[in-house]
Amino acid sequence: MNVLTAKRLTKVYGSRHARAVTKALNGIDLEVNRGEFVSIMGPSGSGKTTLLNILAGIDRPTSGELRIHGQELAKMRASELALFRRRQLGFVFQDYNLLDSLTAAENVALPLALDGKRGAAVRKKVLEMLEYLGMGEYADRYPYELSGGQQQRIAVARAVVHQPALVLADEPTGNLDSASAKALLEVFAKLHREQESTILMVTHDPFAASYSKRVVFIKDGQVFSHLDAPSSRSQFFQEILQALAVLEGTSYDMAPTRM
Ligand SMILES: Nc1ncnc2c1ncn2[C@@H]1O[C@H](COP(=O)(O)OP(=O)(O)OP(=O)(O)O)[C@@H](O)[C@H]1O
What range defines the domain where residue 221 resides? Predict the structure, then answer.
């Protein structure tokens, strides 16, 4: 079953009266099934952020259809959309976006607290999630007492604790060193494998994308190609590099770094 169906999405920036209009999205079709782990890749300016903002309900498309978890986002009132985003979406950002004044556990509890859930049952659920993601010992630390990689794993715990229909990740490894990036990607892979979390990740990094099961390449606001993961991740990494070389018309270093 589809968690996300986007049809012919367009986004035009600038009004008809403006001197310049930009067609950031030019007819994107995208389907994501329940339990899929999908990456979106594309050159700078290809429309990735625009697409993610629309999928996240932050921005509205100029035209096209978008259904997430069976709901048409365009038909929702602002209050319904806010509730939908809180309950059905989880977000992971490049710069973690944890609240400095809250502990790791309190940050993870936020989506539950915003939904009116508090008390011992919430604390138990949060600690179980942190434990599950290998972060149990950091529950009572503040973000400034954690490394970037640890903060990002807390952010992932926060993104999934309320079991959203879809997790949207925007360059989640962008600020991490290679060891922390690998640890974070292992967390995503575990959530995908064991919890059947549905994850859509925008990334520039072929190594990060090789952890997902499908890559959608976009260029000039359109879907350029798709790649399904073969059984070996190192082979997928090579295939992604080759697809990027075609996409960007440049030759990537084919050496299997970090594998
Ligand atoms: N608010 C805006 N107003 C006008 N044009 C915009 C706006 N946001 C994005 N654009 C334009 O839309 C196009 C797509 O931008 P977008 O940020 O979605 O690309 P991207 O693939 O995320 O790029 P990057 O990888 O560099 O972040 C670009 O040409 C950009 O200049």
Answer: 36-59+81-248
